Amino acid sequence: MSAVPASRAWPAEGLARVPYWIYQDEDVYRREQEHIYRGDTWNFLGLEAELPEKGDFKTTFVGEMPVVVTRDEGGALNCFENRCAHRGALLCLKSRGNTKEITCIYHNWTYDLEGNLTGVAFRRGVRGQGGMPEDAKPESEAPRKLRVATFCGLMFATLSEATPPIEQYIGPEVAAKIRRVMKEPVRLLGGYTQVLQSNWKLYFENVKDTYHASLLHLFFSTFRLNRLEQKGGVVVGGEGGSHASFTMMKSDPSGDEYERAGMRSASGGYALEAPQMLESVDEIGDGVTLQILTVFPGFVLQQIMNSLAVRQVLPKGVRRTELVWTCFGYASDDARMTELRMKQANLVGPAGYISLEDGAATGFVQRGAAGASERSSFVEMGGRTVESNESRVTETSVRGLWQQYRRHMGL
Amino acid sequence: MDAALQLAVENLLARYVHAIDDDRLEDWPGFFAETCLYRITTAENLERGLPLSIIYGDSRAMLADRVSALRHANIYEAQRYRHTVSSTLVERVDANTARASSNFQVVRIMHTGESMLFASGRYLDRIRMKGDGGELQFEERVVVLDSRSVDTLLAIPL
Asked: Which fold has domain B3-145?
C-alpha cells in the first residue's frame, strides 16, 4: 500500500522528476517515520569510538524516535528506545556519560544497559498498601530494542527484522569505499550541529549531487580542488540508497573548461595568503583527495583532503533538519597531523569554505518551491536512470536516492 | 582593579565588534598579532577536551584568507551581525600581556528582515598591550559557543 495520500502521485517521468510536495507534506513526513526510519533501514548512530568503555552511553535519534546507545558490561553495543515502559518519559536525559544502570527520573523505574526493565519502585506497595496487581506485566510496554550492526567502527541500528545484513545493505562497492577511510582505529576530534531550514531529503540529495559541488562551492574550483575535468567517478550501490563520489589529484593545470564556459566559479584573480591549509597528505595512498559517501537514509562519510568526518542527518520536522558532525583523525596521528586536520577543518562544517553554502542551498529550494507543490524538479543530468558513472556531471546518485525512497514508501 | 587596563581592553573589544558589525571585515585581521590563534569552538568540545574548531586560524594571513574567501568565493545571503559584549574580566599577566574573559551575544539580521539570536558565548582572550603601532592586539582569541548548534551557516566571523 502506498504511504502517501491518493491525491499525491509521482510524476510519470519517474526518477527524472521529484515532485515538490515530497518536501512539504506533513502527511508524507509522518509516514516516513514509520516506513523509513522505523522500517527496513539501517540508521546511523555514531562512531564506536564514542563509546570506548563498558558502561558508556549516548543518546541520539532514529528518525524522530529518541534512542539510547550503550556499551554493556560484556562490551556489546545495544540500542533501545529512550522511553520508559511506565509513562513514556525519556529514560536518559544526558547526551552522553557512563553508568551501571539507567533510572527513569519520573517514578524511579530502572533498566540495565541492554534496555531490560529491572526494577519498579514500590511494585509491592508500602506496608501492604498500594502497589501493582500480582499479574501485572509492565515489561509488555518496555522500550523497543533495535538491532545494532557495526561496520568499520560505524554504528547502525534498525527496528526491523527484515533489514538485510549491513554490508549487503550498503553494497560491496560502497562498502569498499568506507573501508578505505575507516582503515584503522580513529580518534575523535570533536563535533557540532548545523541546523538546516529545509526538509531532510533536500540535504541528502545535496550530498549525493556530484554536479553541484564545483559550481556552487567556488572555493573548490578556484583552487582546483575539485573541478569536473579532474579524474573521478560516482559509484551507486545498495539498490540506489548508497553512493560514493570521488576525485583524484591532480588536475590538469591547463584545464580551462570553466573559463571557456564563463562560469561564476571560474573567477580567478585571488590567492590564499596562507596556502599551507591546502597542503594535504595522501595518507590513504591511492591518490583520492575527495570522497563523499552516503548510506540511506541518514549517513554521510567525508574525506576532504585530510579532513575526515561523519555526518548524521536527523529530521526535525517537515522544514527542519539537524546535521550532526563528528570530525575524527586516526589514533596513530602525530601532533603535526592533528594540526593539519585542525587547519583543514576550516573546509567543513557550518563555517566550512566548501560546505557552508550547502547549509543555505537546501533552504533556497524549500523557500523557492513553496508555491509549487504540484510542480517538480528536473533531474536529467547524466540521463534518467541509476548507474555508476565515471563522470560526475550526472545526477545518477540523486535518482538512486529516489529509487530507494519510493521502494520504502510504496510510491 | 587596574582601571586604565580595563578601559584599554574594553576599548579593543568594542572596536573589534564595531568593525565586524559595520562590515569592515578587511580591518578584522589587523586586531590580531601576526602569529596568533583565533578559533571558534563549542563549550561541549572544550569540556570534553576535544580540539576541533568551527573556524581555526594560527596567523593573521589565515584570517585574511577568511575575509577574501567571504568576499570572492563563498556564497551566502546578505546578512549582518549585532554584537553585544559584556561582563569583561581583565587580568594582567605581565608588563605587555593581559588576559580577558567576556560574555557575548550576537543577533543575526538577514536581508529579509528576519532577526534571531544567532550565537552566545564567551571570548577568552590573551592580549598584547603593545602590538603593531603600539595598539593592543589579540595574541589569542578563543570564541566558545554556549550551544553546539549553529543555524544554517556561520560565514562572518564572531
From this structure: Nuclear Transport Factor 2; Chain: A, (3.10.450)
